[in-house]
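dumping these here so i dont lose them again. two proteins, back to back, each one seq then structure tokens. dont judge the mess
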Amino acid sequence: MFRWARLWIICLNILGYNAFADDYSSALNELGRTATAAELSAWDIDVRPDFVGLPSGSGSVEEGEALWFDQCANCHGDFGDSNEVFSPIVLGNITEDDIQTGRVAALTDPSVVRTTFMKVATLSTIWDYINRAMPWNAPKSLAVDEVYSLVAYLLNLAYIVDEDFVLSDKNMEDVQALMPNRNGMTEDHGLWSVAGVPDVVGSACITNCSVNTAITSFLPDYAMNAHGNLKDQMRDYGPLPGMQTAPAPQLPVSQLQQSGSLDQRPADLLSASGCKACHQMNKALIGPAFTAIRARYAGADASDYLAEKIKQGGQGVWGSVPMPAMAQLDDTVVAALALWLASGQ
């Protein structure tokens, strides 16, 4: 009798579990929805080396030059050869023989400064990175034709195309065949493909391996926003969202002044902020004298304008030499400097 009772209980439990599983499976099927074409498009923005994903468009060297001076030269120099903020993009060291062979000979010389166009093998990498991550302070803000124009200008600086060249989705493959280091990327090493074999095979640590879980690297506070907000430079869709490195939104300078939250001794910050590398108090150096700036904006409600110029950089107001963006400065420091400059004599 007891055995039959147990069998009945087991059968009832199985039936109950099946009913629960059916209900649970039905509930899971109701979760979520099929991604829309727009959502897939927003996620799938990369351009592959075989140019799959490359949008239609075109841009000339001439158009790219004007755009470069306006949005890129502050960090990279007028000709992409500046080594002050980032490594040079172009700086010579590429020969006609390199373009013929597809291998840059100067890469074997440790004394030569290596540039982007000396090392990069695929033109799609240049196009894709500019499209997703540039300009530094406004990633993903460039139109498709603007990206083509900028890439065309860089190709001209690298002596790959002529100054009257127009780059487009129709001739990208032709230009790829001229990339100086197109044959410099090897595939004969482990795990290049899914079926690859590891480079190193050993048995020294098969059991009782020491595992170090301590975090040995991190982004220090002073470098948090040195390269802009990393989150804005990554896809909104995907498994690897960028780290939020931008500071929290700040009040406008005028409101900060009213709130009394500013340090009222901004002159003490000039040296600490690196301002005196280009400016002197009473004499023009690379940039204008502080007294000249204060005289120009005396009596004007220009604190917000000056804060933006300090933070984002600019060119043309005081001459042709661009002022680099001081994105690493704290907003409170920027506001204090802007208020001091706008306070006049």
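---- next one ----
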Amino acid sequence: MPQPTLAFGCDLSGRHELAQFFQAHAAFLKRFRLLIPQDLEVLLPDILHARPEIEFIPEMGQGAEVLITAKILAKEITAVFWWGDYWPGQSGEMDLVIRYCARYDVPLALNSATAWAILTKAARYPHACLIFNPVAGQGDARQTLSQIRSLLKPYFHLTVLTTTPTTSTESLVKQALGSEMDTILAAGGDGTISAVAHALVGTDIPLGVIPTGTANAFGSALGLPGTIPAACEVIIAGHTRHVDIAACEVRGVDDSACKQTMILLTGIGFEAETVERANREVKDRFGSLAYIWAGVQQFQSQFPFTAELVVDGQKTEFTAAAITVANAAPVTSVLAYGTGDVIMDDGLLDITIVAPADRLQAFNSLLELFGSAIRKVAPNRDDIIGLRGKTLEIKTDPPQKVVVDGEILGTTPLTMKTIPQGLVVFAPF
């Protein structure tokens, strides 16, 4: 569906009021294609520079009225906005635009109050449900929720559902979907965001990510800003992209099959043990340093294991200390970068096997992988193997714990396959 087009105009007396309107609603206006007076770029260079959805037009009386009425006639204009001292019959150019708006049922705003009313209707004022995890992160949950509400409420019919120890995130998403929501927003850490994403797979309903937790790897991988106001601006702007996910199956605690989708990465060996060490008490005490602390502790006690991998039908065997399978990963997830880069919409799993002979090699391997993550270049070491594929089977001896998107899911054996373009997310332009 093409973006709706809004036409803006003003005389000299209305230039600053129009500029103030743009400043107040800059993120929201990214939902539209805009026709605006050329001289407005001088007043708002930071907001209007290099915006592909903006077309600059002349002032009224210099050709703007001809362009706007022609587009109204072609049914290309959703609404017209005008600021200035207008009196009927005194401005032939504006009278022409008003007559065309009346003739072809195009909404017309002549002040900021009616402009905002028309703007929200043109955007269909979507219904959004916010899934909020109050225990994520280390801040004041009430203050965080109040901030998110104040940022989003002008642009959405907002419903808030809060996670509790007895209410699963998945059940809240199902409740939201049953209410015909246009979009689902998740405020929390990777656990909350992953759980919401899992429930949205295949629905084509966009996910908005507001990072408030200890770790926010998915937001980082998407290129989302790390602050709540900036993350909300991305959602308000309305730009979405499709990303891959993966279907996973491992052995559960009772030897039954345990299935889950993955949006970020799966770890076997070192990473799984590290996540288990970084429990809620440690995360509450140390924040993001909890994972570093746990990694150092696990580094002292990690033992190698034998692994049999079948990638797209091709079988290989390794002795490994860690296996990481990534769909998306921030640069801080260095164990995911055995292929040099992790692309979340290429339809492939990125598989990294780290097989050091001793602790010194293990340390050097981590340094090499860190450099690979920064440079986006595959590492050049014999003890780091990078593979890519659409399907994957892993068996280990002895069985190893498997962590999927930051949560322990079960143990090997593990099977995975990609689901290309399986999730819609709000993302920066």
